[in-house]
Specification:
InterPro entries: FAD-bd (IPR002938), FAD/NAD-bd_sf (IPR036188), Geranylgeranyl_reductase (IPR050407). Residues 4-69 form the FAD-binding domain. GO terms for molecular function: FAD binding. The protein is an alpha+beta fold. Helices cover 30% and strands 33% of the residues. It has 9 helices and 21 strands. β18 (351-359) and β19 form a beta hairpin. The chain is globular. The protein starts with a strand and ends with a helix.
């Protein structure tokens, strides 16, 4: 059957744009459909994602409005500067990655569409067909999905601020009785605040009033706020755990696969990571598309889904539980049990297991080393196979001394 494209990607955030670009680099005919509605807002980019983007030739600090800033956490009391993060403008990141996709011969179509098996239906009635269809629409993809577990209804209220100049760039995270606040100052007298709260306010206040209260409550840990610029941006931040893909006709990636609470601080990293996993599935099926290979792909996606998303949700849960003095308050008590009470890392001796891994860009079954800290398994340690290193260490441990 002839298709309009080899690959259709619906949604042009980091996950969708990266998937589309890599497919085009592999020689596929690709269309990327996106409404181009990204709103300027600051977001943290992890060093892991920055490193991968640099390696792939996709990182551009000026285009992304990137600023490296020390990160101060007030989570456990006095501020702790444990690391630094890259503050970027999310709308600029999205636009840059879509431009890079276009430069790689991806056809970028401005609009919205419904991803369906083998096709995407554009608003207005136009239909496009493809061998591979990718759903990268973000959280709205879950509205029509079954088998979805939602956490407590959560919103993020963001706003651009004018702050006292002269303090340099830096980000801060502060817990509050009603939620938590992240503030990213660029060092030029501007900053972005994001307040994460219960979606419903018992007093029925508007977003502006809730934001003002949050800034007042956090003022001791913030630079002097001189004013709020423009209207606040209100986004759904409810954590969502969806079931893994049960068929390959439409592959969800990024927040369309599962969406994490912004507390993780690694949203863009895991979004792009899911695009890379789906890329390995596409490459594998392009080499051989039969029942055995499709089964391998589905098992890989289920394995990766189980390894990543519940674990990230439990990391957030355990971070919430560190606020022991606030766990009696509604915001914190609602989140202390999501997604469950399963320990993050069950004690286990290192052992060898067979897993599906990505090797040379495609899927393969291989032996990996499973540990308490790496329950998904390690395939390589640098250039060496982890199983070879473990077996050598075990042999050295039982070898009698000379």
């Amino acid at each position: 059957m002839a298709h309009d494209y080899d690959v259709l990607v619906v949604g042009g955030g980091p996950a969708g744009a990266v998937f589309a670009l890599l497919a085009a680099r592999d020689g596929c005919r690709v269309a990327l459909i996106d409404p181009n509605r990204s709103v300027p807002r600051s977001e943290g980019m992890s060093p892991r994602l920055q490193g991968w983007l640099q390696q792939a030739g996709l990182f551009d600090a000026p285009a992304m409005r990137a600023v490296t800033a020390p990160r101060s956490s007030y989570w456990d009391g006095p501020p702790v500067q444990a690391n630094a993060e890259l503050i970027v403008d999310r709308a600029a990141v999205d636009a840059h990655l879509r431009r890079m996709a276009g430069a790689a011969d991806v056809r970028v179509i401005e609009g919205t569409a419904l991803p369906l098996p083998g096709r995407a239906e554009m608003d207005g009635g136009q239909g496009l067909t493809a061998r591979f269809v990718i759903d990268a629409r973000g959280r709205r993809a879950h509205r029509a999905r079954s088998l979805v577990t939602r956490g407590p209804a959560t919103i993020a209220i963001g706003a651009a601020l004018k702050v006292e100049a002269g303090q340099g760039a830096g980000s801060r995270i502060l817990p509050l009785d009603q939620g938590w606040l992240w503030l990213a100052a660029r060092g030029d007298g501007t900053a972005w605040a994001q307040l994460t709260l219960d979606a419903a306010d018992p007093e029925g206040r508007a977003a502006e009033a809730r934001l003002a209260e949050g800034l007042r409550a956090a003022s001791a840990g913030l630079p002097l706020v001189l004013g709020v610029e423009g209207d606040p941006l209100i986004r759904d931040a409810t954590p969502v755990l969806a079931a893994p893909a049960e068929e390959l006709a439409v592959l969800p990636i990024g927040d369309a696969a599962s969406a994490m609470d912004p507390l993780s601080g690694h949203g863009m990293f895991w979004a792009v990571s899911s695009a890379l996993a789906a890329t390995a599935v596409r490459r594998t099926l392009m080499r051989r598309d039969d029942a055995e290979t499709r089964d391998l792909a589905l098992r890989f996606l289920a394995q990766r889904h189980a390894d990543v998303y519940p674990r990230q949700a439990r990391l957030g849960r355990d971070f919430i539980r560190q606020q022991s003095a606030r766990l009696h308050l509604p915001f914190w008590s609602r989140r202390a049990g999501f997604p469950d009470d399963t320990p993050l890392e069950a004690p286990a001796e290192s052992h060898i297991a067979r897993r599906i891994v990505v090797e040379d860009g495609v899927l393969a079954e291989a032996e990996v080393v499973v540990t308490s800290h790496s329950p998904a398994g390690m395939a390589w340690v640098g250039p060496d196979r982890a199983v070879d290193l473990l077996r050598k260490a075990q042999a050295d441990a039982v070898r009698p001394p000379r």
